[in-house]
Structure formats: C-alpha cells, structure tokens
Specification:
- It contains nine helices and 27 strands.
- It is an alpha+beta fold.
- The strands form three sheets. It has a 20-stranded mixed beta sheet that branches.
- β10 and β11 form a beta hairpin.
Length: 639
C-alpha cells in the first residue's frame, strides 16, 4: 500500500449536478485543482511532486449511453518538479515541468466503434528537462531538454497520430561522477534535435512516419586501458541483470514468454536523415599509443524503410569527413528487415592518413601514408562478398622495437618490404585489390582474422602478379624456399649465357630490357646479381685450351712431317678428340669464378650503361661454380 503520504491540496471549482428526465445524472466540474509538496511511497517506489495543477472542466454522465460521452475532459494539466525513485533497479526519474492541453471523450457503451470511436483524445504536450539516472554508479542514462507532441490524436486506443514529435538536447549515457565535469561531461550519445513528422498508428500493429530528422547527432565511443567500453559496459551489465529478472517473470507456467502470440509491430518510414554538425568519435586507450579519430560532419539519408516488406530495398546515401581532410561517401541499398539482413553498397574513401593506425599494426609503425579506397559490399543470405580496391600513397613503415617482424613476413610468404616494393610505382603509390568473402556467423569475421588473411594473400598475389606480367613472355618470377626460418625470397628466371661466354646474347638483352622497365616503374626495387659457372663451362674452357695448344703446336708438327718424322697427335694411345681428364684438370676454379664474376659484371653494366638504372640499386654477390648441376651457365637475379 501507500506509505508516508503527505502534501497539500487547493481547489477553486464550480460543481454542477443535474438529474435529467431520462434518469441519467450529469456532473460538471469546472475550475482548478492543485497539489503541492506531494510525497508518497508504494512498494519501494517513492514519488515526490512539487506542484500539480489542473485547470479546465470535467463532465461525467451516468449511466453510459450510446449517443453521449460518459466522460468529457477539456483543459490543461501542469506538473512541476517531479521525481520518482525506483528501488530495483536503482533509477531516479525526474522532470522539471510538463504540461498537457487538450480534450478527451470516452463512451464505452458506443455500439459502432468504427464510426464513432469510444475513446478520443486531441491534445498537445510538452515535457521539459527529463532525466533518468542510475543512483549507484552516478551515470545519467537519458536526459533531454524539451520533448513536444503537437497535434496528438488518439482514437479507440489502437489508432492515433502525431503531427510532430520534437526532442531537443538529448543526451545518452552521461557520466559526471567518474569521467567528466559539467563543462565537458563524458557521454556516449547526444542529439541537438530530433524531429519526427506525421506519425500514424494504424490497426494497432503498424506505425507509419513521413520523416525522421536527427540534427547535430553525436556518438562518442571510448575504450579504457583494459579494452572495456566506457559507460556502455557498465550500463549493459546492469541491464543484463534487470532483463534476466524481467524474463523470468514473463515466463508462464508452460515456459513460453507471454505475448509471443502478438503480431510484431511494423514500422514504415518514408525518409530518415542525419543532418547538421553530426559526428562519431572513437578513442581507444587499450593500444599504444592511444588512438583517436572522428567522423565530422556526417550526412546520412535513408528512404523507403518498411519492416512489413523485408524485400523492400532502402536506398542509402552517406557523406562524412574523417579528421580534417579525408572523406567517405557511401551509397547503395540496404534490406534492414530481411533475415538475415542484406545490403548492396559501394563506398569511396579519399585521403585517409595512415600514421595513426600504427596503434593497431603488430610489428610496424606507419611513419606516413595516405589511403584511397573503392569498396563494394554485397551481403545476402548470411554471406558477404567485399572487394576493396586500394591505393596507398607514399607509404613508409618502420619496424617496432622488439616486435616479430620476421613472423609477419613469414605469414605473408615473403618479406613485407619486398612485397610492398613490388607494388610501388614510380610515384610511390601502391595499388592493391583485396577480395574478402565469407559468412557473417563465422567466428573469424568477428575477430578480423578473415580480413587479415585476405590482406596477406592479396599482398602476395598482387606482388607476384605484377612481376610475372611485367616479365612476360620472356621470364617468370619464382618463390624460393624458406631458409633457417626466414621468409621466402623472390627470384627471377635466370639470365642464361652461352657455354663459356661472358657476353650478353640477344635473348639475354631482351630479357634484361624487361627487368629494366620494371625497375623504372618500381623505383624501390633492388636486385642482387650472382654469376654462376657450371661444369659445361669447364669443359668449354678445357676444349679451348686444347685447341689453343693444338694451334700453337701446328708449325712444329709441319716441320717434323717435312723431315719425315712421325708426329704424335692428341688421340693416340687410346685417346679421342673429346676433352681428356688431363685437360679438364688444367682449368682452375679461379678461372671459372672469374668467368662467373664477369657475367655478373656484364649484366650490371648493361643495366647501368644501356638502361640508366642507378648502380646503387644493383648488388653483386660472390661468384659461384657448380660442378654437380645440369643447370645452364647463368646470372641469378634475386630481389
């Protein structure tokens, strides 16, 4: 029951009672009734009402008749300084002032309710300075400046309309006690003005709205050093406890939530807009350094929203500025009421500075860089298909101290800087396509693993594709195996030489021309040139030595033949014209290494002297000799 009730009442009314010939009694009360300093408690809920005043007239008729209202009310109700304190949950609800002005007609005996409603109300109402707060944690869950209802009409309770609903200075989840002050309080959301035009409730289950406009919307999302959402987590934890209690109470004896048999409320909105100085701010103290960004201003327009028709496409247009100079435009269609939801959107991002995202890169600092992106997104039947076309301008990375840079490159399949350098053009721009596909309920989608995997794959494939296309049809590029846990390397098809030769042949020059073009297009690339001699070169040099020896011995042999002496020739005593083991032994390793070194030098000279490639981009390695390989003589070219 009611406990602790107290207050003051004042009246100034005229009362007229009439006993009519049809035995009905009519009662008319006209004037004012006021309550002051009202206080009372019911089951732990405490009400404090500073002032309540009614000015107007109330007409009653009994018994009820079909042609006359049993109740007619016409006047103005005013409430000032109201406070309601709930025990569980520990919420306080307060308002500074409220007024309602209008008329009410009621006749439960009316037979044809469709033609003549049993209940009607026509009114305007204004509520000022509403606040709902959580006592224990010192947070304001909801606060408003003014809420006004114009041209409110209700008929038979189940139908009605509002000409305009307006809300000003809306604040959501505001915390002065722990995270802010009166000058700059911590809050999750704010709204300068909400205007909803022509709200109509039809057949109890459908609400139609001509337009919804949110001006100066602000959303502030902040994570603390532990990764918890400030204010939001606090309130959600409280709400989960409350919802569990409510859910338990709502289950009937059969274990089915009461009301499930009711038809869900349908919503139809012709147009929704976010205008004015609207923004979204995000800050994260759980990363190092702290990350902050802001989208401001944001302009959004959505039309043809209809929960009754899930197949109805809702056109979407959004424009936003990120930071001072980056822009984001989104357009397309959404299906918000389809199960699961669907969308077909395209987005264009321009000039986003990448340095701030170093907070989220595991092994590298982004020293500089600017991102441009064209993104197409298709979501249907629980599956998503995204194509990201990226252009990254002037990207510069620096390894973070103590971080696993090698691990990143290993996961990528090649050194990260190598992959990026293959993609950089002569203007220091990187173009990359990243397709991402999957299912919305895939756990990897929530953790971002799908996107990380797709990005790594796109980097590797993009780098290899460029190099392969650039060298066609004369050469290919290969990934050579991991050594000692290091990331893979990229090696071009070798530059082949004729056996025993050091000069570039015509196919070799054409091949180097292709590589030189790639070096011109990708100015960050550097090459290592390694000359290799093989056993075929050794045989060739030995043959050359044999021929030279034979030629030098020819004059002496001719003189001996003239004198009639027998002249031994190579091949006597069981030997043949093939290179003998004795001749092969005369070819030293130093000669073979000199041959391979000269091949590498000639390749480098061609790049520098003929193609204009900077010498400091070309590295020479120790020459090699292979005596157990069938590979041709060559210069190996490695990134």
């Amino acid at each position: 029951g009611v406990s602790g009730a107290r207050g003051k009442i004042s009246t100034n009314v005229a009362l007229e009672a009439l006993y009519r010939q049809d035995t009905s009694i009519s009662l008319l009360v006209e004037g004012s009734v006021g309550l002051a300093s009202l206080h009372g408690a019911v089951e732990g809920t405490v009400l404090d009402q500073e002032r309540l005043n009614w000015q107007g007239e109330v007409a009653l008729l009994t018994p009820a008749r079909d042609d006359e209202n049993i109740l007619s009310v016409n006047g103005k109700l005013t409430l000032d300084d109201t406070k309601i304190s709930l025990a569980e949950p520990s919420y306080d609800i307060a308002q500074q002032s409220f007024w309602w002005k209008g008329e009410v007609q009621f006749n439960p005996a009316r037979v044809d309710a469709e033609r003549s409603p049993r209940f009607t109300m026509i009114a305007d109402a204004v509520l000022n300075q509403l606040a709902v707060s959580e006592r224990d944690k010192g947070a304001t869950l909801l606060a408003t400046g003014e809420i006004s209802l114009n041209q409110l009409t209700v008929s038979n309770i189940d139908t009605g309309s509002v000409g305009q609903l307006a809300v000003t200075d809306l604040r959501i989840l505001e915390d002065l006690a722990n995270h802010g002050d009166e000058e700059s309080p911590m809050r999750v959301g704010s709204l300068g003005r909400l205007a909803v035009e022509n709200i109509v409730l039809e057949d109890k289950n459908t609400i139609t709205i001509t337009s919804v406009q949110l001006a100066d919307l602000g959303i502030d999302l902040s994570r603390d050093s532990q990764g918890r959402w400030k204010l939001v987590d606090m309130v959600m934890a409280e709400a989960e406890g409350d919802n569990a209690t409510i859910a338990d109470e709502a289950i009937d004896d059969k274990g089915v939530p009461e009301g499930d048999e009711n038809t869900p409320l349908a919503l139809q909105i012709a147009g929704l807009e976010i205008t004015g100085d609207s923004w979204v701010r995000f800050s994260d103290e759980s990363v190092d350094p702290d990350f902050k960004t802001e989208l401001r201003p944001i302009q959004l327009k959505v039309t043809q929203v209809d929960s009754k028709n899930p197949e109805q496409a809702s056109p979407v247009e959004m424009r936003a500025k990120i930071g001072e100079h980056a822009t984001l435009n989104v357009s397309g269609t959404a299906y918000p009421f389809m199960i699961p939801p669907a969308a077909d959107l395209v987005a264009k991002l321009k000039a986003l500075e990448l340095a701030p995202i170093s907070s989220y890169t595991p092994a590298y600092h982004v020293e500089r860089g600017r991102l441009y992106a064209d993104v197409s997104l298709n979501v249907k039947d629980g599956k998503f298909d995204v194509l990201n076309k990226l252009l990254i301008d002037k990207l510069k990375l620096e390894a973070k101290v103590g971080k696993d840079v090698v691990g990143v490159s290993t996961a990528l399949g090649m050194p990260l800087d190598m992959a990026l350098d293959l993609l950089r053009d002569k203007d220091d721009r990187i173009e990359l396509e990243i397709p991402v596909t999957g299912e919305l309920d895939d756990p990897r989608f929530g953790t971002g693993d799908i996107i990380k995997t797709a990005t790594a794959k796109a980097l590797q494939q993009g780098a290899l594709k460029y190099a392969t296309v650039a060298l066609q049809p004369l050469g290919t590029i290969m990934i050579v195996g991991k050594l000692a846990g290091q990331a893979t390397q990229l090696r071009f098809q070798p530059l082949e030489f004729s056996v025993g030769a050091v000069e570039l042949n015509k196919p070799g020059r054409a091949y180097l021309d292709k590589i030189a073009t790639m070096l011109e297009e990708r100015p960050k690339l550097r090459l290592t040139l390694c000359g290799v001699a093989t056993v075929k070169d050794k045989e060739s040099l030995a043959q050359k030595k044999r021929v030279e020896r034979a030629e030098s011995a020819e004059p002496e042999r001719a003189q001996q033949q003239a004198e009639g002496d027998r002249v031994p020739v190579e091949g006597d005593n069981g030997t043949s014209d093939a290179v003998s083991g004795e001749t092969l032994a005369e070819v030293t390793t130093e000669e073979l290494l000199a041959l391979s070194e000269e091949r590498g030098r000639n390749a480098k000279r061609y790049f520098v002297d003929q193609k204009g490639i900077e010498a400091d981009r070309l590295f020479s390695c120790q020459p090699h000799y292979e005596d157990d390989s069938d590979e041709p003589p060559r210069v190996e070219i490695t990134l």
